[in-house]
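Researcher: Here's my situation. A collaborator sent me these components and asked whether they could plausibly form a single complex. I don't have experimental data yet, so a predicted model of the whole assembly would be a useful starting point for our discussion.
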Amino acid sequence: MPRGRPRQFDLDRALDTALLLFWRHGYEGTSLAALTEAIGINVPSLYAAFGNKEALFEKALARYLQKPAAYLPKALQEPTSRRAVEKLFGGAIQMVMNPHHPDGCLLVQGALASGPSSESIRQQLSRRRAGAEAAVRRRFERAITEGDLPSNVDAAQLARYIVTVLWGLSVQAAGGATRAQLKEVVEWALRCWPESV
Amino acid sequence: MPRGRPRQFDLDRALDTALLLFWRHGYEGTSLAALTEAIGINVPSLYAAFGNKEALFEKALARYLQKPAAYLPKALQEPTSRRAVEKLFGGAIQMVMNPHHPDGCLLVQGALASGPSSESIRQQLSRRRAGAEAAVRRRFERAITEGDLPSNVDAAQLARYIVTVLWGLSVQAAGGATRAQLKEVVEWALRCWPESV
DNA sequence: ATTTTATTGTAGCACCCGCTAAACAAATGT
DNA sequence: ACATTTGTTTAGCGGGTGCTACAATAAAAT
């Protein structure tokens, strides 16, 4: 057991609660008062545990990527690129429409546009989105070397198209689309899939 | 000339300035102080002219739909649905990448997620997005009756797919994508276009 | 010239923002 | 028992938020 007085709340549960708030209301739309009230602690405890609002968001974001957004790297492990993308979209819809948490993707809802004080958060989310796109691109590059995708396909272009639809799904989810509707969107999106040979 | 002391600033120019700020920083990220400073007036003048922050945003939004976002209804006037969609995406890219104003679409950047105090703005933008989708859907329904699109195509589904890509383009633009990259995305998006007959 | 109407400038409202100092409480180490 | 370490509590900081009362100003109407 550590030295001093033991913490009276669970760090992970607190992070989960913070994640939900940031997810639903965005970085700017989530106040410290809302965070501390939802977690059930008071402000100094939050600061002692997480640093400040920005650091708390970053830790919540890391938690987001490890848990709800883990469907993405997992989907890319599918044996074929086509099945990877199908699983990617399937996982995205399942996450984005999960009634246990807000609709949409934190990488999009967190801070698309923001005031000057939240610029760094905005940029960080932008980088994370670029990271997701890069992961998809690398998967397609591998698919090309494996003959799974035609060699005349530009992996970067295809990846950018796929994640563009992905971010679009997040916007649609925020607008109240249903799961069935998003599935239809994905079906349309994949009709252009380049057949091998 | 009206009765009292004449207004010392131009309403339309002020609205344009407000629009740019809301567009770049979102509704929540734009403070009254930033607005009045950018317009060059002080707060009571703004309130006398526009009501309050919410009303100002709504008027800026109306201006946005009439000017920068006018490409959408205009594109739908093209003789064929295919050319309408091509022009729609072309216009979107041109707007979303215009160096004279922020990257992205106000309907997406304005308030995707927000705090409780901006809920009504969020919902209003959501309704506007749904309105855009409905306009595209109606154009496709017309195309089906004209034989321009196969009758087995679901106009609502296709419209939802198209605007999903559209909102995705806005997110990509906010992430620093180039015009050429967005054009490639659109090219991929349209490979699935249902051929007539 | 005076009254009327509308806009502008000054000043400040109540409230919320992110954040922190200082005292208190609960555990461990010696 | 006592000091040390750490978390919690209370209280409040400076500054920003959206917004408004009030007086000064500039035009038209009489």
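Model: Some features of this prediction you could bring to your collaborator: The two ends of chain B are 62 Å apart (CA to CA). Chain B touches chain A through 51 residues (CB under 8 Å).
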